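The instructor's notes for this session suggest beginning with a concrete chain rather than abstract definitions. Hand out the sequence below and ask the class to guess, before any prediction is shown, which regions might be ordered.
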Amino acid sequence: MIKKLLFFLTFLLLLSPLAKAEMKITEAGGIIYIKKTTVSELENIFKKHKYLRFRGLDDNAYPAIFLSTLPTDFSEIKSQKYRNELFIRILTPLALKINEEISNERNTLLRLERKFAQNGTLSSNETEKLETLALKYDVFTRLKGANRIGYLLENLKQRVDIIPPSIFVAAAAMESNWGTSRVATLANSLYKEKVWYTNEGLEPLENKDDGYRFKIFNSLIDSMRSFALTFNSNKMYEPVWLARALSAKRHDTVLGESIAYALATSSNLPNFAGILNYTAAFYDFMSLDLGHLKRINNNVP
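After discussion, reveal the predicted structure:
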């Protein structure tokens, strides 16, 4: 009896890695969510939705296919060109989704601004929404009343704005070595975000005594959301905010290549702005910045 039990437990242990590797797909609101996929399985899904490249898509529409993590065998891809282009295809829909979320916040902010301009005040509910955005985007003032509202609106308008998808993708490519780094693989961290003086997080292989670890994210989009919040709240990025606002006045769409120069001091990587701009130009990332997210049609065969 004991031998049979041991055999059964051993059999379950042998099966458990296989069970963990099974792809999981859910769909909600026209978005396909994928967990634990292989490159081959992912390509089959992309093919079904005619997402075979990241440039030249009909109407610049990127299908709403969201991966929780990179494919389990992503780092085993031998062709660097194919791996990099797949990385772009995976991240672009996520970047566009985050920009939708930011756009919704900006629209709320602009509505509050119009209301304040008309009435000189905001309701308690409207003020609460404004204060919530101020807290999220790290805007602080000791001003009170109407002066406070005006200050928060003006400063938040500078911060709460979309980030060109080309910046999302190019920065992730540089910081994670196109998704092949240890930090990207084990922590879903695309931008090497750090946490300090804690046992939580992924321990670095080098500089272990420097007091930091790499933050672990539940998903790729969580890592990208965190990057977006830092981008739009940390004063280090103020030159980029100004460049973005200037570019928005000149063009209907803010292109990454038009603001990349302002990122010169935003990374520890040498010549970050130059390499980022080169990467975006080499892969023709303008198409990403002109893209929009397309919800999945359930009637696709």
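Then share the key points. The chain has two domains: 27-99+162-294, 100-159. The longest strand covers residues 24-28.
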